[in-house]
Design a protein that fits this description.
- The protein is of the alpha/beta class.
- The protein has a domain of 244 residues: Vaccinia Virus protein VP39 (Rossmann fold), CATH 3.40.50.150.
- It contains nine helices and 15 strands.
- The strands form five sheets. It has a seven-stranded mixed beta sheet with strand order 3-2-1-4-7-10-8, sandwiched between helices.
- The longest helix is centred in the last third of the chain and has 21 residues.
- The radius of gyration is 20 Å and the shape is globular.
C-alpha cells in the first residue's frame, strides 16, 4: 500500500487530519466524498450544503461539521446570515448534480426541465445548478473554487454549456481551467472519468500566470497523475462466494468476456449498465444505480458493500446511516481522487499565495 500517496484502504478512526492547509466548504456534498479527500490532504473542512436529508444525516454522523445547511443551493446562496468563516475560505468545493449531461442519461432531452431527486427534495432545473454555485462563489469570494462534473459535459452540444461556465466564472472574478481526470491513475480502484473546473481568484493570480497561445492568460497548475492502476482482483472480497444468480444475466454469462457489458450478448442490447468485471483491470465507474452495475468476474454476484467501499476509496468504517453504500459511493467523488487534486492546489497555488 505504501506505493500510493493516499492509501485507498483506510479507516476514519485511524486517520490523521492535520487541518493546516486551509479552510474548505463543500456544496452538493452528498455523504462527504470530497470532504474526506480535503481532510486527507490536510485541509480543515468547515461544513456543507446539501439538499438530501439522508445524505446530510450521513455527512453529520461521519464528519460532525461546524456548519451544515440542509436546503437547496438557490436558497443557500441568498442567505444574509452566513457565518464569517465562509467569507474567508481557501477553497469552495462543489459537485452540481450532473445527470442531465451524463452519457448514460437523457442529455439534451432533459436540459431545461425540472427534476425531483429523492424524497423530501425540491424540484430543480439541473443544468442551472452550476450557475447557482458560481453565484455563491461570487458572494463568498474564496481563493479557489473547485467544481466537479461528468465527462459528458465536454461532449456534443454540452460544450456550449462549458463556454457559459467559463464566462460566469470570469464575471465572478476567477480565472478558470478544466481538467478531465481518471481516478484509476490517481490511486483509486475505479475507472471514473470526471471533469474538474479549477478556478483561482484573479487578484491572487499575479505570480502564477502563464501565457496560453497568444491571447489567453491563465494560472499555471499541473494536474498529471500516473499511479499504478489497481485491478479488481486486489480489492475483491474472496470470502464472499455466495451465488446471487440472476436468470436473465445467466443466459448471457458465458457469452461475455471479462470487462464487457452483458448487452454485448443480448439481442436487443439490454443490460448495458451491467458488466462482468475484469480481474486485471480497475472496475468501471461505480454508479448510484443500485439495481445495476459490475458483477464479479467468475461468481454470479454483483459487487458487495466491502468491494464498493474499496472501489470508491471510502473508509471501511464509514457510517452509511440509511443510505445504501453503492448509492452513496456512486453519488460521491472518490476521497483519494480529491486528496490528490487538493494536494496539488495547495502545493502549486495556495502555499505560494500564503507566502507572498
Amino acid at each position: 500500500m505504501n506505493e500510493y500517496k493516499f492509501p485507498y484502504l483506510w479507516n476514519l478512526k485511524d486517520a490523521t487530519f492535520t487541518k493546516d492547509k486551509g479552510n474548505v466548504f463543500s456544496c452538493f456534498a452528498c455523504g462527504g466524498g470530497s470532504t474526506m479527500g480535503y481532510k486527507l490532504a490536510g485541509f480543515n473542512v468547515l461544513g456543507c450544503n446539501e439538499i438530501d436529508p439522508k445524505m446530510i444525516e450521513a455527512y453529520r454522523a461521519n464528519h460532525k461539521p461546524k456548519y451544515s445547511f440542509l436546503e437547496p443551493i438557490q436558497d443557500f446562496k441568498q442567505r444574509k446570515d452566513l457565518p464569517e468563516d465562509l467569507y474567508n475560505l481557501d477553497i469552495l468545493d462543489g459537485s452540481p448534480p450532473c445527470s442531465s449531461f451524463s452519457m448514460a442519461g437523457l442529455r439534451e432531452k432533459a436540459w431545461g426541465k425540472q427534476k425531483k431527486f429523492r424524497e423530501g427534495q425540491s424540484l430543480q432545473v439541473l443544468d442551472t445548478l452550476f450557475f447557482d454555485f458560481i453565484d455563491l462563489a461570487k458572494e463568498l469570494k474564496p481563493k479557489v473554487v473547485v467544481a466537479e462534473n461528468v465527462k459528458g459535459l465536454l461532449l456534443g452540444n454540452a460544450k456550449n454549456y462549458v463556454e457559459n461556465i467559463y464566462k460566469a466564472f470570469d464575471e465572478a472574478g476567477y480565472y478558470c481551467n478544466h481538467f478531465l481526470l481518471n481516478s484509476s491513475n490517481m490511486g483509486v480502484p475505479q475507472r471514473r472519468e470526471r471533469v474538474f473546473f479549477i478556478c483561482l481568484r484573479k487578484d491572487l493570480a499575479k505570480d502564477l500566470l502563464e501565457q496560453k497561445n497568444m491571447f489567453k492568460v491563465l494560472p499555471k497548475i499541473d494536474l498529471k497523475f500516473n499511479e499504478r492502476e489497481i485491478p479488481f482482483k486486489e480489492i475483491e472480497d474472496q470470502s464472499d462466494t455466495t451465488l446471487k444468480d440472476n436468470t436473465k444475466i445467466s443466459t448471457f454469462w458465458d457469452l461475455v468476456d471479462f470487462g464487457q457489458p452483458f448487452s454485448k450478448a443480448h439481442p436487443k442490447g439490454s443490460f448495458f449498465n451491467d458488466n462482468k468485471s475484469h480481474p486485471d483491470r480497475a472496475l468501471p465507474t461505480i454508479t448510484a444505480d443500485t439495481g445495476h452495475g459490475s458483477w464479479h468476474y467468475n461468481i454470479k454476484r454483483r459487487l458487495n458493500d466491502l468491494e464498493v467501499k474499496k472501489a470508491g476509496s471510502y473508509p471501511l468504517d464509514y457510517n452509511f446511516c440509511r443510505n445504501k453504500p453503492k448509492y452513496l459511493v456512486g453519488m460521491s467523488v472518490p476521497p483519494v481522487m480529491v486528496a490528490q487534486i487538493a494536494t496539488e492546489i495547495y502545493a502549486q497555488w495556495l502555499s505560494k499565495i500564503q507566502c507572498s
